[in-house]
Amino acid sequence: MAGRQVGTLAAVAGLGGIGYYLYSAGGDPKLAEKKLEHDAAEATRKLRGDYPGQDKEAKKAGEEAYETARAKAQSLANDAKAKADKADAELAKYSADAKKKFEELKNETGREVNAAANKFDKEVTDGINKSKGWFGGLFGGK
């Protein structure tokens, strides 16, 4: 029974450790793994009484620093992509608005041109009708 409790406590402690490293790494499992390896190398060095900065610890510290930089770069890249996507969406919106306004202006201009052409046609037709009457009077019409 005591063995079962020890196993349960060890499992809870292990899960707590995993949670701690994942939390401290901002949810990045690779960075959490490198932090754990660095801490394990440092603990091993302290237990052996070696001096700081020996090969294994230095290597693990370098790996941890690399993973930290990689995670930060990935985060910045994701932020930049999100901002670029947002800007692209806004540009598409402005482009659609401009196209809509252009179409409205084109239609309005078309209506104005048609109205002016109709007015011109009416004036020309009225002028022709008046001139027929005037010329008709000169050349033997009514």
Automatic annotation (TrEMBL):
The keyword Transmembrane applies. Residues 43-65 are annotated as: Disordered. Residues 70-97 form a coiled coil. It comes from Paraphaeosphaeria sporulosa. Keywords: Coiled coil, Membrane, Transmembrane, Transmembrane helix. The chain crosses the membrane at residues 6-23. This is Calcofluor white hypersensitive protein. It comes from the Eukaryota.
